[in-house]
From TrEMBL:
Annotated source species: Conexibacter woesei (strain DSM 14684 / CCUG 47730 / CIP 108061 / JCM 11494 / NBRC 100937 / ID131577)
Lineage: Bacteria, Bacillati, Actinomycetota, Thermoleophilia, Solirubrobacterales
GO molecular function terms listed in the Swiss-Prot or TrEMBL record: ATP binding; ATP hydrolysis activity
Keyword terms of this UniProt record: ATP-binding, Nucleotide-binding
Official protein name in the record: ABC transporter related protein
InterPro entries linked to this entry: AAA+_ATPase, ABC_transporter-like_ATP-bd, ABC_transporter-like_CS, P-loop_NTPase
């Protein structure tokens, strides 16, 4: 049987920028190799400044590398229209949520995902779009929020609304940039439960979740890439990479990691 072609394939990817303070180029990413296949759910872990956002910008067809090759959804960056490619990529990040103002309801915000716009373009929507929006809200425990102004939703509810929005077009790749940051415990748990449904309901979709905290990874996480100073120090199946020794190297401090009920807990080694 032929293997499915990768969702993302990065080979020897480096990205550098001019560092005016030092008067020389500085590597934000160095020689990163990374392959994400359909149905895989990756964690992208690293300390502040490790290069996670930079790598997500490349994976999301927002930025080009300085060197190396990048194939996103089978298209080589540098040879394709990035805007067309981005239409097949779902994105949940804090910035997206801040764009929705006024009296837009939660359902309206989800529906904007069908057109990939910030404004609601009702004339471009059909009954299937409305049905999918309602089904996604229900699936994420947000059915009662449909008519509530988005501004009036709690932060946790908003994140689930944004997740529903990102799934409207059944993206092949979904990027989640620190989706649980700032959520309280029930909000975080509801969001992670919602993310975990993707493995079953959208089995071809690959996801990448950026976080500093392994506690914020959904139980559906299958793989992890650990970045330190722009270098991928480990990449592979979660049970081989989300480990104390590798996370210690990644964060530069001794860390102990436990797996409980399919999730991960990390603490500084000294605290145990
Ligand atoms: N345009 C740029 N020019 C120069 N340096 C940059 C540029 N963009 C980012 N950097 C630097 O590159 C490094 C990696 O940044 P990046 O935002 O990718 O890290 P991160 O892992 O996402 O960090 P955080 O967890 O704090 O969000 C940082 O030291 C940052 O200051």
């Amino acid at each position: 049987m032929l293997a499915m072609s990768p969702t993302l394939s990065l080979t020897a990817v480096s990205l550098w920028r001019w560092d005016a303070e030092r008067g020389r180029e500085r590597h934000l990413l160095r020689d990163v190799d990374w392959t994400v296949r359909p149905g895989e759910h990756w964690a992208l872990l690293g300390a502040n400044g490790a290069g996670k956002t930079t790598l997500m910008n490349i994976a999301g067809a927002v930025a080009h590398p300085s060197d190396g090759t990048v194939d996103v959804l089978g298209q080589r960056l540098g040879r394709v229209d990035l805007r067309e490619l981005r239409e097949r990529i779902g994105l949940v990040e804090a910035r997206t949520g801040r764009a929705f103002r006024g009296r837009m309801t939660a359902a309206d915000v989800v529906l904007t995902g069908a057109t990939g716009s910030i404004a609601l373009q009702r004339h471009r929507l059909d009954s299937d779009d409305c049905a999918r929006a309602a089904a996604l809200l229900a699936r994420f425990g947000c059915a009662a929020l449909a008519d509530r102004p988005y501004d009036a939703c709690s932060q946790g509810e908003r994140q689930r609304v944004l997740l529903a929005r990102a799934l409207m077009r059944r993206p092949s790749l979904l990027l989640l940039d620190e989706p649980a940051t700032g959520l309280d415990l029930p909000g975080r748990e509801a969001l992670l439960a919602a993310v975990a449904t993707i493995a079953e309901q959208e089995p071809e979709t690959a996801t990448v979740t950026v976080t500093h905290h392994v506690e914020e990874l959904p139980s559906s996480t299958t793989h992890a890439l650990l970045l330190r100073d722009g270098v991928a120090i480990a990449a592979g199946p979660a049970h081989e990479t989300i480990r104390g020794d590798l996370l210690s190297a990644c964060f530069g401090t001794p860390v102990r990691v436990d797996r409980v009920g399919g999730r991960w807990l990390a603490r500084a080694e000294a605290a145990w």
